[in-house]
Amino acid sequence: MLLFILGLLAVAWLSGEGYQWLLRWRAERLLSDVSALSVSSSGWTDAQTIMKKWGPWSVPTASCTEQSCNYQINLVQSLLPVLGGTPGTGVKNWLPIVLGHLGLRSAATRAGFIVQKGLITEKWFGEQVTLPVQDWDPTVSYVPYLSVSSHESAGFHDHPRNPDQLFADRLVQIYPHGMNASFASDEDSAEKTLLMDFRFNCITQIRPCREVAEILPEAWQTLQQEQHRANPR
């Protein structure tokens, strides 16, 4: 019986690891495709190419035309609660903790773009990975994720900004277990590349990630520079 149970766990682990590597492989290609879009330059034909390629993973929308389209793609690898853990007070989660030490976790990557009057005016990408089960707050009823996103917009400068901010063309905001970067389409091209340089190690490596800086280092560096300017020591 023990060998049977161990065999089932081995199969579950191998299957979960396989799906995590498949998610990473797809995520790398999705990021490459989204990064290749040029905000304010790429058009409806470019959008249709991505929609055709990633249609099976798209989020259904009521309408998507050349005049107006908000398109989103979700790549999700979600473990069953018995393997990934169940939040809540008094839940032991011994099996998910063991499997977590072996690198098994839920993860997701998401991406999207907006088309207005035939031009792509915004694009974004995001990555999520579950925090280690042993770090979960037992008083909450949801599964905590590290969540990081980066968003390029032609209308970045249309929103009110703090004139004292260090960087005029980009903004990074932090919240519990999450970080959002946003930047203008006229930001320096090298900086734009860095702000979309997501690391996917957190999806597949054995050691779990606990910090948003591990997913998007450049955005974290921008945040640190802004905070140092606001609170010099």
Could you describe the 3D structure shown?
- The protein is α+β, with helices and mostly antiparallel strands and 233 residues long.
- The chain has one domain.
- The protein is 35% helix and 23% strand.
- The chain is built from seven helices and six strands, in the order ααβααβββββααα.
- The protein has helices at 2-36, 44-54, 81-84, 94-101, 189-194, 201-204, 217-230; strands at residues 68-77, 107-116, 119-130, 145-153, 170-175, 178-184.
- It has a six-stranded mixed sheet, with helices on one face.
- The mean pLDDT is 89.
Give the SSE map.
Elements: H1 2-36, H2 44-54, E1 68-77, H3 81-84, H4 94-101, E2 107-116, E3 119-130, E4 145-153, E5 170-175, E6 178-184, H5 189-194, H6 201-204, H7 217-230
Parallel strand pairs: 4-6
Antiparallel strand pairs: 1-2, 2-3, 3-4, 5-6
Characterize this entry briefly.
With 233 residues, the protein is of the alpha+beta class.
Count of discrete alpha- or pi-helical segments spanning 4 or more residues: 7
Number of strands: 6
| Low confidence ranges | none
Residue share in helix: 25-40%
- Adjacency order of strands in the biggest sheet: 1-2-3-4-6-5
Give the SSE string.
Answer: HHEHHEEEEEHHH
